[in-house]
Amino acid sequence: MPRHLEVRDTPAPRVPPEPPEYFDRDPSVLRLDNNTNPRVHPAIRRVGTIARTVELNRYGTAWGGRLRAALARYYDLPEASIFVGAGSDEILDAAARTFLGPGRRGGMTRPGYDIHASLIARSGADLREAFLGEDGRVPASPGWARGLDLLFLASPSNPTGVALRAKELAGYADAVSGVAVVDEAYAEYGGPRLWRTGLARKNVLFTRTFSKAWGLAGLRVGYGVAHPELVERIRRYRIPFTLNTLSEEIARAALASPAFVRRSVAEVRSQRPRLAELLRRLGFTVHPSDANFLLVDPPVDGEWLFDELRRRRILLRRIRRGPRGPVALRVTIGTPREIDRLDRTLRSILGRSGREPALGRWGDP
Known about the structure:
Elements (H helix, E strand, L loop, with lengths): L6 E4 L19 E2 L15 H5 L13 H11 L6 E4 L2 H12 L5 E6 L3 H9 L3 E6 L18 E5 L11 H10 L3 E5 L11 H5 L4 E6 L12 E5 L1 H8 L9 H11 L3 H23 L3 E2 L6 E5 L4 H10 L2 E2 L1 E4 L6 E6 L3 H15 L15
Parallel strand pairs: 2-12, 4-5, 4-6, 6-7, 7-8
Antiparallel strand pairs: 1-5, 3-9, 8-9, 10-11, 11-14, 13-14
């Protein structure tokens, strides 16, 4: 696989960029685009009981102190190393507000999570992007990260599904001038444990969420883990009471049922190779993944296939290989029944398609 380094520098835009494209919930559509857990956490069935224990007419904890304490016990970490918010996106936003602004520079890898780029642009900072190799790994040399005030990494990466190695994280944490943020939205599904490497440093922030493996996406609960000095620095740039009381209590209840996460992860790991094989038989190129999704290059034009699937009430995620490059697709690993439906629909579509694929490197213009 090619491992040459491709880097792109973009000055801060004069006006905020358009937000990433998202689709609202529609019960009639098979959602294989947002990587949520199709299984229902048992804490959800107790919402009524939990709601009766809280006073929703009053404010809850200013900084999510009850959930922070529960997370500290769960991970055996100091409470001062943890902060919580309304989804991990709020934690990412807090980091951008703290370390970026006009005259500063943020960095990320491509393809990557669109919110990372949006947060950098909205802060008024310049953007530096380094393109992943075809193996989905970050560039072997972290030299391109020097001079960055904030670097967004992800493990496993969205959308490639490839996890960081501890050695890679250490190299980037040493190279970056400011702070390295490791977005671990999918960490429960696979990849090495990185906290020992990162928490030994004062410039690494990990972000996690209850939206994926924990199956609580609608509650919007996320948290950050870092050295206490870094947590305190970020807290000064945040506003209080962003995590609502009911979400905090349901998340606390969920932590008492970790077996749900273990079962969810086990099912994803059992279905991941099955889905990969079904797609390969249909002519897709399937990239390795440590997450609950697969990135694939379709055997036909990706934009056309996305539209055909959407017309049949199946929604995937489009991933462009460059500003005007071909479209890859990201597929959530759903339940066995959902995978069967996708397989049948793809066979129906591709059986009468004569279109050819259009592939290119991630950084191709």
